[in-house]
Amino acid sequence: MEFAELIKTPRVDGVVLHRPFMPTVEGTLCLTGHHLILSSRQDNTEELWLLHANIDSIEKRFVGSLGTIIVKCKDLRVIQLDIPGMEECLNIASSIEALSTLDSVSLMYPFFYRPLFEVIEDGWQLFVPEEAFKDLESMVLFYPWNETTLFGLPKEDEEDNIALWSAESAFTVDEAVMMRAAQPLTGTNGRRCKEDEKLINATLCAGKRGYIIDTRTIAVAQQAKTRGGGFEQEANYPQWRRIHKAIERSNVLQDSLIKLVEACNDQSHSMDRWLSKLEASNWQSKVKEILTTACLAAQCIDREGASVLVHGTEGTDSTLQVTSLAQIILDPACRTIRGFEVLIEREWLQAGHPFQQRCAQSAYSNGKPRSEAPVFLLFLDCVWQILRQFPCSFQFNENLLIMFFEHAYASQFGTFLGNCVAERVKLQLSQKTVSLWSWVNRPQELERFLNPLYEPNNLVIWPSVAPQSLLLWEGVFLRWNRSTKCLDEACQEMVHIIEYNKELQNKVNSLRRQLAQLETEDSPLQTP
Amino acid sequence: MIIYDIPAFPKENLVKVENVWLVDRSSSRRTQVGTLYLTATHTIFVGKGSEDRNELWVLHSLVCNVVKHKASQSGYPLLIHCKNFQVIQFIFPQESDCHDVYISLSRLSRPEKYEELYCFSFNPNVGKAEREHSWDFLDLKAEYSQMGLPNKLWHVSPINREYRVCDTYPADLFVPKSVTLPVIVGSSKFRSRGRFPTLSYYCKENHATICRSSQPLSGFSARCLEDEQMLQAIMKSNPESRFMYVVDTRPKLNAMANRAAGKGYENEDNYCNIKFQFIGIENIHVMRNSQQKLIEVSALRSPSMGEFLTGLENSDWLRHIKSIMEAGLFISKAVAEEGVSVLVHCSDGWDRTAQVCSVASVLLDPYYRTLKGLMVLFEKDWVSFGHRFSHRCGHLIGEAKEVSPVIDQFLECIWQLMEQFPCAFEYNEKFLISIHNHIYSCHYGNFICNSQKERKDLCIKEKTHSIWPHLWENKLDFMNPLFKPDQSQNQGLLRPSTAPYCFKYWRRLYNRFDRELHPRQSELDSLMTVKEETQQLEEELALYEQKMAVLDKEHAKTLYMQKGVLDSKQALWSLPLDTSLANTPQDYISGFIGGAPNVFTLQQGERESAEVCLYGDKTKSSDADNSDQESGVADFSSHSSGEESLPSEESVKDPDSDETGPNRA
């Protein structure tokens, strides 16, 4: 297919662009296969480059022959384009609609994008499973038949034992392990699987205990039995204890995001309405639920020295939120930029979170939701909450989290394409696209994401999950609704304070050395 | 333990009860046993077998109410709610002890006479001269002259020198020069409680002013020529402008209802060139109820997100804060952008009027965003203009209906502004909280009584100390490291957004004593430490540069190194931010226990954690200093109460509660 077929009017002059808290720009609008571009063709003026993939939905309006297209983006930005000429406007609108909803993955921009920077370190090679698990002596790593996921498994298990049952992956702290899985397929008549029991029980030495954290309520888990799913019967897993937590399913999440963003975008309403809409969106409750569960998992490992197995239904959504947050709480390495990337790579990409499906639409989707859900965004929100509570314990700042949110929804990089490793292999992403990590990890880019207050902290960090302690993530949800001038200034000042301090330290140190040198040179003079 | 030398310590009043439990409401495992003392001024709890920091001092004047709860298994609980939002729970083994303490504390915390207040017995070791000097720390006359007054249009009127025209106003008042004494007297007779229009803020750049008064006694049709002349004169004192705003901060309905009582608001037809405007800020009773609801929400124990947000919404508190902010913004814009003078009033002109005028001043003038400036603002717009501190803060036993958090709302407006403009304020949040504490503590004389006249009659300046020098001495704690006075957006008028989502819940104030709810690391504290270190480095650098210069000259013949200064220092700010803040897991499982058949309570597991100390103070790790790490496991069970575990970390003594111990400040 040629993109040209979809672009009925490639260029319109005299288009006026309105963006919140920015001056309006008049210029020429161009449509390309992947971008919407507006340029005033003057020097020193900012241009708009918008990926079609970033467009969540559009609205058109007409006043006389002046058409207006309101473009709502997946990063929650809303922009307005005034286009003279009804026909041009209609053409542009239908082109945008078509180009922003392309079905085929292989037509996405990452397959066409050529980096303007030199790839020093190929991000596709960032995560090598053998490396990550190499400290686990009693584990073997193996690649199952379908290459959907990578596993770290106890050595004594046979390869095919797990074939019928849940997929698991592990993270360790000392001798305790954290694993994730999907639900066991016990069904209504309580089917058992010797291999699964053996696999799970094998992770615990004699006398050790483990906790199975089921992210569903007991009622939901019971219900799952009627569809062939279920939960572990404790009699069959004697060393394990099961805890149920109520994390809602991902389909409810999408609705929650839509309501939250609607509340944030409504400038007109009163205090009462704002708070009641914020409450009704339920987003903050979900942040609390997930953080609580992650803390519980971390607590089992750190305080009890017990192993933990986390699962919900599929093991690709709430399970990943819980296991990855627990690692951030427990493991200082995950609070570095590199470590956080590895965490996303291991706990989200390799673990098969279906990014393509979940991030197909964002808060402005007006169609019937299919499998869209801001599971990853909610995870990032939770990380932000911990970051707010431990502002000196993370190597990165909020910008990194926001950047991940943007790229999960629309990107020039191939990292978040596809729904699992198997799909990515099939798409040959590592050959045909550039990895997000190749770009982020360049020193020039990294600078933007560094937290000036960072001081490595080897401890477990326990966040507060009380409603009083959890905040609305303004950096994402109010990003386009307020002027950030004063807040940006504060960030710059913070960087300045710390850089100035370091600069002084260097000066003092070098002077101190010079003085010491002079002293030794002089000392023979003093001792006759 | 150390028994503090408490002045005027009446031995017969001393109550001492042993084996009292102090319950930490956030987690039962920090509950401790100790001895409770009631002195004339403080309730003191001393933890058993602990060093002196394990003490809790509570000023009686900070106690809001004392409640006996139903006896439980562990004993007889007594709950003390404080005006600084601290909630303290004691459990007594004997009912009679509980009752005795209840009776004594109820009496001690509700003084009938001013002389019983703590400020009259508070006696730091300073001489008479120094005390008197403390009252000269702020000089309002000098402050007005900083503002550009008196000048050719405004002067101080001697009319209220003896407080005869208005006994709730200060002695010195600025009025337009063109106004004659009979006009002032006439106008004052036409205003509630004689509070005639007088100057609050003068804008040097464009001569626009903010004036304040009480409501006019206009009823349905009454007029007063002198009052009309007064307003005319105020307008004319701003030569550039052709009209002035009259802002009634009440809801229109309230103002109209007042007409029936012979009060009311200005009729635009009777006053030349005024633009009249209502701004609906609710009255003190609505505010009192609103804050009561907010306090209930803030004190909820492990609420769900829904409960919290619904409670916050139902309290209406943030809506009121927003309306005050909007009023302040309206006035400051009129002054700065339109160059128009504004007369502000409510009913009596000492609550909403004070709030709105002072918020407008903070928005208008960078001076009030400095430490000194805010102190001046308090003295000027609140203390001198007769905000009824004693009534509103309930210093004395009396009308509960007079109590209202008017001053809390002003402090909160500043805090909300600090959230929007992090670099515009010289002071930080701690400064506001400290002022809040002292307004209620009656530790210093500044916020006693309801007017300047009352304070004079009581000889406050002779008998008590002033708060401001005390705060000034500790100013290092109150500095905002991000303050950038030179930045253009921090100069001139601040234009805050008043969109609802810009108003946030002030956790640091309302959950001040719930330490587990606050961030475990503080951006503010780290930055302050960095700045402090930077200053030291600058000094060190200057010293070295000086030495280098000397060396260059004399070829270093007589150089002696000063070892002490040259000792290499590690980054100071990487050291613990606050070692007393242990990282402890919360109760993450409560509410899920007991619901389902298969869930259970985790047992307490003793596990030595290698990572004992949070803030990298490696030398201290693994000692008992941070026992929270180990005992944290108990939190899995929300039901295990009354277990005996003494907190070794500072769980009861708030770091900035210097005000609660008499000889510590």
Automatic annotation (TrEMBL), chain A:
Q: Which residues form the Myotubularin phosphatase domain?
A: 176-477
Matching Pfam families: Myotub-related, PH-GRAM_MTMR6-like
InterPro entries, from UniProt?
Myotubularin, Myotubularin-like_Pase_dom, PH-GRAM_MTMR6-9, PH-like_dom_sf, Prot-tyrosine_phosphatase-like
Q: Where in the cell is it found?
A: Cell projection, Ruffle membrane; Cytoplasm, Perinuclear region; Endoplasmic reticulum
UniProt-listed CDD domains: PH-GRAM_MTMR9 (cd13211), PTP-MTMR9 (cd14536)
Q: Name one GO biological process term.
A: phosphatidylinositol dephosphorylation
Q: Which GO terms describe its molecular function?
A: protein phosphatase binding
Grouped into one coarse class, the protein's main location is: membrane
Topology relative to the membrane: Peripheral membrane protein
Sorted alphabetically, the Gene Ontology cellular component annotations on this record are: cytosol; endoplasmic reticulum; perinuclear region of cytoplasm; ruffle membrane
Q: Record's superkingdom?
A: Eukaryota
Asked whether the UniProt record includes Metal-binding among its keywords, one would answer no
- Which family, according to UniProt? Belongs to the protein-tyrosine phosphatase family. Non-receptor class myotubularin subfamily.
Instruction: Please identify the protein, giving its name as recorded.
Output: Myotubularin-related protein 9
Automatic annotation (TrEMBL), chain B:
Q: Which residues form the Myotubularin phosphatase domain?
A: 134-510
Cell wall biogenesis/degradation: is it a keyword of this entry?
no
Q: Name one GO cellular component term.
A: endomembrane system
**SUPFAM superfamilies under this entry?**
(Phosphotyrosine protein) phosphatases II (SSF52799), PH domain-like (SSF50729)
Q: Which SMART domains match?
A: PTPc_motif (SM00404)
Low complexity bias (residue ranges):
637-649
**Coiled-coil ranges per the record?**
520-554
Query: Which UniProt key words apply to this protein?
Result: Coiled coil, Cytoplasm, Hydrolase, Lipid metabolism
Catalytic residues (UniProt): 346 (phosphocysteine intermediate)
Topology with respect to the bilayer: Peripheral membrane protein
Task: Extract the PANTHER family matched here.
Answer: MYOTUBULARIN-RELATED, MYOTUBULARIN-RELATED PROTEIN 7
Family the entry assigns: Belongs to the protein-tyrosine phosphatase family. Non-receptor class myotubularin subfamily.
The protein, known as: Myotubularin related protein 7a
